[in-house]
């Protein structure tokens, strides 16, 4: 593939790193004190309670509501792990797939909010593109260690 300035694999690495920075910003901008005290899960519970799809309400009530503190930590540190993993390219295919799943969950929960839909759809598209392009081939720990060839 001919490109200007970088190789095709390097451009996909730029895309992967950019997505990692986006996940890192998702983690960084959270008010951790409020989030871990239950603020984030309480906010999500209100959205799930009024959701137009019954499966979202039921799933939230079954998996998230019984464990609000655990889920708050899981969400926040999943975003941190995704960001760091994608930036350095460590376990990249796993991080890209997990990020896509998290974006699908966010998308389903926030289906009524166009701004959230746009962000999550873009992140999902980048995840799938970076995964299918094997973006760990350049500038990654996976590439240095020969993982996922």
TrEMBL record:
InterPro entries: DoxX (IPR032808)
Transmembrane annotation, as ranges: 6-24, 94-114, 121-139
Gene Ontology cellular component list: membrane
Keyword terms of this UniProt record: Membrane, Transmembrane, Transmembrane helix
Domain of life per record: Bacteria
Subcellular location: Membrane
One Pfam family it belongs to: DoxX
Membrane topology of this protein: Multi-pass membrane protein
Protein name stated in the entry: DoxX family protein
